[in-house]
Design goal:
This protein is an alpha+beta fold. The chain has five helices and four strands.
């Protein structure tokens, strides 16, 4: 029984570490409050990616879409980015962003701390680029 518990604990730590590794590789923030402050200082929207340790679509979205040169270039220029785990980080971000579906992306106004645009599920990089453009048009009042 102790061996089984140890294996389960190691697996959970590996998944949580994946999100930390992804954040380190991409420069995504891991703390909601810090990310909100950075977004206010930069006068940019905050993009919060809600991920889950058990979600293969989250890993695919991170690797294939968010880590692509096309998307990274846009994000680095125009958006403050944050990634959180819906289970392990649930106390670190507002409850209104809790959802059962992952990956989920919330674009948040840093001043009101409210979502004004969101996506759900795995999205290919070309389609996600269009979603970002839609979000930018909304945030600029177009």
């Amino acid at each position: 029984m102790k061996s089984l518990l140890l294996i389960v604990a190691i697996c959970f730590n590996m998944y949580a570490a994946n999100i930390d590794e992804f954040a380190n590789e991409t420069g995504f923030q891991r703390d909601f409050k810090v990310a909100i402050e950075k977004a206010k200082e930069a006068n940019k929207p905050l993009m919060m990616v809600l991920s889950a340790d058990f979600c293969p679509w989250c890993r695919k979205f991170e690797r294939k879409t968010l880590n692509s040169n096309l998307i990274k270039t846009i994000l680095d220029k125009d958006i403050i980015t944050l990634v959180v785990d819906k289970k392990f980080d649930k106390d670190s971000f507002p409850d209104e962003f809790q959802t059962s579906m992952t990956p989920r992306v919330f674009f948040i106004n840093p001043y009101s701390e409210k979502s004004f645009f969101q996506t759900a599920g795995y999205i290919k990089k070309s389609d996600f680029k269009k979603k970002i453009e839609d979000m930018q048009n909304i945030s600029k009042g177009k």
